[in-house]
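Late entry, evening session. Most of the bench is empty. Finally got around to the prediction I had been postponing all week. Sequence below, unchanged from the version circulated by S.P.
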Amino acid sequence: MEEKTQRSEIPNHVGYYADMQGNIYNSKGSKLIPQTQGNYVGVDLPIGNGKFKRFGVHRLIAITFIPNPENKPQVNHKDGDKHNNSVTNLEWVTRSENQKHRFCELHHSHFGEKNTQAKLTEAKVRDIVKFKHLGLGLGYLSDMFSVSKQTICDIMAGRSWSHVTGIPPKRNIKRMKELDLLNESNFAWVHVSYRSDGANRKQVLSL
């Protein structure tokens, strides 16, 4: 027989309960359906006078199950998945601790090709840098790699993918101008060759 999930009443929310898997229930035992709230999920709970307020599920789980003796103000998702509100994935943190975790400990999931929203791979980024040094303009590179001109600028200025290119970030950099050092026929050859497989691509990158 399956053991019933343990539920505890949420502090300051009489008649509403949470379990350690990250679910919220009303007084009738019905599971509330969380709503997307930015990158997080939340549920609407009554605050009196017939009014409701949306609360982040991660905070409700934390205040119910996780002691906070140092009165830390924020709740961190250890694995970076803001929809995973299991007790084992949450912890109370200071603002600086939260930022450190976000930008350092989870670096691999927020930057580079492991970012699920990334259109480029590390290999393509290296190619972009090489082609830019050869003189291909921003417009050409934007079309070749199906990204915006700003993306190319950010790569060349070290504002993104610097962990791959080794280009140090440049803060006060003027907008890069297109350098059309290759004529139209040379570009056409490079463009077609790069998008082909095998020897042609290697020949282009060996320039």
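Two things to note before I forget:
The chain has two domains: 7-110, 116-205.
The first helix runs from residue 57 to 65.
Will write this up properly tomorrow.
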